[in-house]
Structure formats: structure tokens, C-alpha cells
Amino acid sequence: MEISRETAQTIIETAIAAGRERKFLPLSVVVLDAGGHPKAFSREDGASPGRYKIAFGKAYGSIMLGIGGRAQMARADSQAYFVLAANGAYDGGLIPVPGGVLVRDDQGRVIGAVGVTGDTAENDVICALAGIEAVGLTAEP
């Protein structure tokens, strides 16, 4: 299974709607496929233009390391040398904080990742989870 463009769009729309409903700051949301390539991206009006790279880095770290943003941050706290080395291997493209969420299919296979940025990291996670759950996939924050 792979994340289709339509599924990616639904994840994004639902994540943004979840943020608006909670009156979060303007969000930027990216959905990557299992190879770390963008399927879809949206930046809300009022979100800063640099948010694409942050959303991408959160999701990309999830794909490349095979763990969600919370686990990446814990790893950075306990083994900073590893995360620094991994980030160097990926040309500085990893942002190991909550808001990067791994996406698995019903058989547990990694099929992509979602990156959300714009509010607090934990609020970003809330929105990513809403989007992923809306399409019936499993999230690993």
C-alpha cells in the first residue's frame, strides 16, 4: 500500500481543520511517501514561509530513522552523538522533535510520514494524529 495524493490531501485538510477548531496558530503540513518524497503540502495563510522545511524535516526524520518525532527527541536527549551523526548523513535534513509522525498501514508497514509545524510541538502532533486517523491509518508519533 502507498499513500495516494488524495489520501495525503485528506490528511492535510483534516490536520489543518483540527488546528483551526482548537484555535492553534497557522499550520503547515506535509505528507511524505515511504521513500521520503513529498506527496502533498499546504501552508495556511499567516504561516511563516520557512515552515515547509520544518514540516519536511520532522516527517523526513521519521521516515529515515523509522521512528516518530517523540522517539527521535528522546534519542537526541539520550544519544545526541547519534542524532548529530544521522543528521549529518542526511545533509542536515532531520528535525528530531514532536510533529513528525510515522504512518503505518493495517499490516504495520511504514507507508509514509506526516510533518506538522506552526504551533507547539505537542499541538502539531494532535493535528497530525487527527489527519492520519481520519484516513484509517496508524500513527506513530
Fold and architecture overview:
With 141 residues, the protein is of the alpha+beta class. It is globular and about 40 Å long. A five-stranded antiparallel β-sheet has the order 2-1-4-3-5. Helices cover 47% and strands 20% of the residues. The protein has helices at residues 5-21, 51-65, 69-78, 80-89, 121-134; strands spanning 28-33, 38-43, 100-104, 110-117, 138-140.
Essential attributes:
141 residues; alpha+beta; globular
Structural class: alpha+beta
- Tell me what portion of residues adopts beta-strand conformation: 15-25%
Helix residue percentage = 40-55%
Strand order of the largest sheet: 2-1-4-3-5
Average of the residue pLDDT scores: 97
Total number of helical segments? 5
Largest sheet: 5 strands, antiparallel
How far is the N terminus from the C terminus?
Answer: 20 Å
